[in-house]
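Lab notes, practical 5.
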Amino acid sequence: NSQTAPTIITGQTAETSIATDDTILIHDTSASALRKMTRANFVSGIGGTNTPAFLIKQTSVTSLANATRTKINLDTSGIDTDSGLDATNKRWIVPSGKGGKYQLFYQLRYETAADFDDCNVMIYKNGSAITSSWGVNRYYNSFGNAFIADLSVGDYLELFALQSSGGSINASTDDFGLQTYLGGYKIIE
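Output from the prediction step:
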């Protein structure tokens, strides 16, 4: 009040939204001055998006031979914001300019009511396992996990499974919802 009249503020009500070209008054401490800035400049560099984001799955079951590490037929995407799916090679590839830390998650359901030991589901990065889930199948179990990985441009991810049921069984597709998948998104840093 000692410097300006309260009447210079028109409307004197709180704003519920702000347009990109609206201006905001700020105090510049380095110059001891009151300055104006557009909303667009004020918020530039704040926030971000969690992209790329992807969720890839198989369109038909993958047959898993007994005691054989088998790549899952990930050939379609439910979500793939940056087109990283390589359906021919059944993998997701980190797109150009999109390296960084990723939150990854996966699940596989063994399509059998038989109980057996030694179920293993793995994520491979560039041909080598980087994480796995082990368990015992008890009536159509699903196995999965979530973790954070550092990925570089061109790195590729694949989903593998191993089972020791004594015979071939399938990795399930959709049954009361999505059953076998690999997904993730880039973490905002």
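Observations recorded by the TA: Residues 84 and 93 are 5 Å apart (CA to CA). The chain has a mean pLDDT of 85.
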